[in-house]
Amino acid sequence: MSASSTPPGPGLTRRLLQLYVGLALYGVSSALLVKAGLGLEPWNVLHQGLAELTGLSIGVVSIIVGALVLLLWIPIKQRPGLGTVSNVFVVGIAMDGTLAAVPDVHALGIRIPLMAAAIVLNGVATGLYIAASFGPGPRDGLMTGLHRRTGRSLRLVRTTIEIAVVVTGFVLGGTIGVGTVVYAVAIGPLAQVFLKVFAAPASPEAPTSVAGASPEGAIIP
């Protein structure tokens, strides 16, 4: 922060709160999708498969994969923000904590509403986190970085990476199902709605050194 920057105040406090509440809720929502057992979001299919392979918890695998993906930012010259580094740890910790606290669910009449609630909560969490504007998550930063460096469309880069992680995760034992499809269809519109809900008014004097990227640069943590 430069000497002329506005001192930290309510705006920065709100953004930090949004960041960490959003990341924590993202981990909670991902854990609830695991409990529902009807299919996970693409990267967690991979995380679950690796967890099955290694015997580590899915949250710990998420942290390890996030850190490894962050290393891939170096050759594509992508710069992390506070939200990027926080994402690596907070989501995985919240996910493991929720999995330990929530009992297993077996009845389909409970699993379906749980899946739906988890996807909506994921949209809320995504809106909170992105609106905080502290930088993209490691996985989204990889996608936007490759898009910028290769000139390929963001849709193509994202689709290629997510197909690769889903297929790899499924082969390793990750769960693909109706929840994976519903998540893929619903998360974009949900994130956009909640991004508008939680967006803070822009301040022309707001510090920029802690914000790694604009909300548009980070679609999903």
What do these coordinates show?
The chain has 221 residues and is mostly helical. The chain has one domain. It has helices spanning 10-36, 42-54, 58-71, 82-101, 108-131, 138-150, 154-172, 178-198. The longest helix has 27 residues, at 10-36.
Shape: globular
Mean pLDDT: 87
Give helix and strand order, one letter per element, not per position: HHHHHHHH
Helix content: 55-70%
How many helix segments? Answer: 8
Distance between the termini: 25 Å
Low-confidence stretches: 1-8, 205-221
Number of strands: 0
> How many structural domains in the coordinates?
1
Write out key terms for the chains shown:
single chain; mainly alpha; 68% helix; globular; disordered N terminus; disordered C terminus
Layout of helices and strands, plus pairs?
Elements (H helix, E strand, L loop, with lengths): L9 H27 L5 H13 L3 H14 L10 H20 L6 H24 L6 H13 L3 H19 L5 H21 L23
Helix pairs in contact: 1-4, 1-5, 2-3, 2-7, 3-4, 3-6, 5-8, 6-7
Q: How would you briefly describe this protein structure?
A:
The chain crosses the membrane at residues 20-38, 50-76, 82-102, 114-134, 163-186. With 221 residues, the protein is mainly alpha-helical. It has 8 helices and no strands.
